[in-house]
Amino acid sequence: GRAFHDRARVVDPSDLATIIYTSGSSGEPKGVMLTHANIVSNLRDVQQVLSLSEADAALSFLPLCHAFERTTAYVYLTHGVSVVFAESIDTMARDLLLVRPTVMSGVPRVYEKLLDRILEGGRALAGVQRRLFDLAMAVARERGRTTPERKPMALWAQLALPLVRRLVFAKILERVGGRLRFAVSGSAPLREEV
After folding, report:
1. Sign (positive/negative) of CA torsion 155, 157, 160, 163?
2. What 8-state DSSP symbol labels residue 177?
3. Residue 35 has pLDDT above 80, yes or no
4. Which contacts qualify for 84-89: CB closer than 8 Å, 24 or more apart?
5. How far apart are CA 86 and CA 188, in angstroms?
6. Which pLDDT band holds residue 158 (cuts at 50, 70, 90)?
7. Backbone torsions φ then ψ of 21, nearest 5 degrees
8. Mind giving me the DSSP string for 43-64?
9. Separation between Cα atoms, residue 71 and residue 66, nearest integer Å
């Protein structure tokens, strides 16, 4: 233990901490050298956006060699978050129910598939249930439009929110484990509707 602490004390922020290799989608894979300062900078930036603690549990879908997942893992470790790695993208629905995460991370495709399943389930409804689902999706779009600008939602959406939260959103939340507080996306642009 003493040798570890002695060596840790002499690490400089500009020292190499890790090398992450690109996938090679634009040619030959390349090694990206990250310093301790690079990693700490990312951690500090994330702390300004997410409030995480040892009470949180995370579900992760990406391998640790993925640059986004590596950063996410550092964030989780820094905050004492318990991390469970999903078996595969195909077992996501099962894994969400087993882990009951409070936070999850993934690339946009993960969230696109999740939205597709939600919309598929909503399209299968009929009558009043279908109209309620459509109202919930309209409220979600309105909330997505106004929240980034810190503007209030339209009055109709404010009035509908408690109803759709209880009758629609609560059911969707249960399908992702019932405790999800944050769903973080990275590595590529996330479509606005997602």
Report:
1. negative
2. T
3. yes
4. 84/57, 84/58, 84/59, 84/60, 85/59, 85/60, 85/61, 86/59, 86/60, 86/61, 89/61, 89/113
5. 20
6. very high
7. -100, 135
8. HHHHHTT----TT-EEEE-S-T
9. 9
Token pair listed for 112: 């696109």
Burial of 187 (0-12, 13-18, 19+ CB in 10 A): middle
Note the pLDDT of residue 2: 93
Residue 67 has, within 13 A of its CA and on its CB side, a CA count of 17
Task: Please state, in angstroms and rounded to a whole number, the distance separating the CA atoms of residues 4 and 139.
Answer: 53
pLDDT at 180 (0 to 100): 96
Would you state the structure tokens that stand for residue 23, as one six-digit string?
A: 């996938």
Euclidean distance between the first and the last CA atom of the chain, given in angstroms as a whole number:
47
Q: What is the pLDDT of residue 26?
A: 79
**What are 64's two structure tokens?**
């640790």
Tell me the CA distances in angstroms from 59 to 21, 24, 41, 169, 186, one per residue in order: 23, 26, 23, 20, 15
Q: Tens of pLDDT along 59-92? A: 988 888 788 888 899 999 999 999 998 888 788 8
Residue owning tokens 């930036």: 45
Q: Is 28 helix (H, G, I), strand (E, B) or coil?
A: coil
* CA–CA gap between residue 18 and residue 184 (Å, rounded): 23
What is the predicted pLDDT for the residue at 70? 87
| CA 154 vs CA 133, 138, 140, 144, 149: distances in Å | 18, 11, 12, 12, 13
